[in-house]
Amino acid sequence: MPPLRWQACLFVTINAVILSMLLFDAPIGAGEAPAPVKHLGELLTGFGDSAWLIYTSILLFFQGRAGYKLLKTARSKAQALYVSWIGAYLFATVVFSGLLANLLKRAIGRARPDHFHDYGMFSFAPFSGHSAFESFPSGHATTVGAFFAAFALLFPRYRVAFIACAIWLGMTRVMVGAHYPSDVIAGLAFGGWFSLLTAIVFARCSLLFKLAPDGWPLSKQLFRSA
Questions:
Q1: Rounded Cα gap, residues 187 and 59, in angstroms
Q2: Ramachandran angles phi, psi of 215, nearest 5°
Q3: Closest CA to 175 of 52, 82, 78, 43
Q4: Around 47, how many Cα atoms within 13 Å sit in the side-chain half-sphere?
Q5: Where are the transmembrane segments (predicted)?
Q6: What is the average pLDDT score of the chain?
Q7: Most Cβ neighbours (<10 Å): which of 30, 86, 100, 173?
């Protein structure tokens, strides 16, 4: 691991999750979001569905590979190859972070907010096999965190906008009553860190990124004018 101050970030994340559990999870579980807020959440929450992101990343990969084969100039070939590796990077971050998050939520087995009155917010049934006990961490939030963290690393100029989008879209899971706030915070952090570690792997393979002296992956940003 490069010196990315991950211990401090992990400490902050754990404290944010615990504070969220103690202060916000119970009110969310005991009540229900206002109708306009819930409607907004229902409109936006589908973005966290990993299926369309996976299909898009596969399309980018094969489109880039086809362009590399068909285009004539060296510049065009390099651009196409760059696009294909973006597709591969997005695929790796979304798919593998999602698989790990789903394994974690099954292993932890936390009850979802709609069962708050039956089980409370600290009810756990590891490997129960029931979706009612798959709340922590949020899979949708993990996907959103991985996707927008990947774009923040690829295009750091717009990282603040990407972070804001991740928070808003992650919290739609709270708006629709599918997760507690702590589930979303944990999912966003998990997805974001997975994208960062994947970027480090790509940088060590000289793909898309290069490693800064402190170990942080920097986007190569080929053809900035394009």
A1: 26
A2: 95, 0
A3: 43
A4: 20
A5: 9-30, 50-68, 80-104, 136-155, 160-178, 184-203
A6: 88
A7: 173
Residue 65 structure tokens: 């590979």
Q: How many CB atoms lie within 10 A of CB 212?
A: 11
Check if the beta carbon of residue 200 is closer than 8 Å to that of residue 44: no
The verdict on pTM exceeding 0.85 is: yes
Nearest to 187 by CA among 148, 130, 133: 148
| pLDDT interval class at 168 (50, 70, 90) | very high
- pLDDT tens-digit profile of 173-221? 999 888 999 999 999 999 999 999 999 999 999 889 998 887 889 988 7
User: Does pLDDT of 33 surpass 50?
Assistant: yes
Residue with tokens 């999750």: 17
| Axis-axis angle for helices 159-175, 181-204 (nearest 10) | 140
| DSSP assignment of the chain | --S--HHHHHHHHHHHHHHHIIIIIHHHHHS---HHHHHHHHHHGGGG-HHHHHHHHHHHHHHHHHHHHH--SHHHHHHHHHHHHHHHHHHHHHHHHHHHHHHHHHHH-BPPGGGHHHH-TT-B-TT---GGG--SS-HHHHHHHHHHHHHHHHSGGGHHHHHHHHHHHHHHHHHTTSS-HHHHHHHHHHHHHHHHHHHHHHHHTTSSEEE-TTS-EEE----TT-
* Dihedral, CA of residue 81, residue 82, residue 88 and residue 94, to nearest 10: -160
**Beta pairing partners, 124:** 110
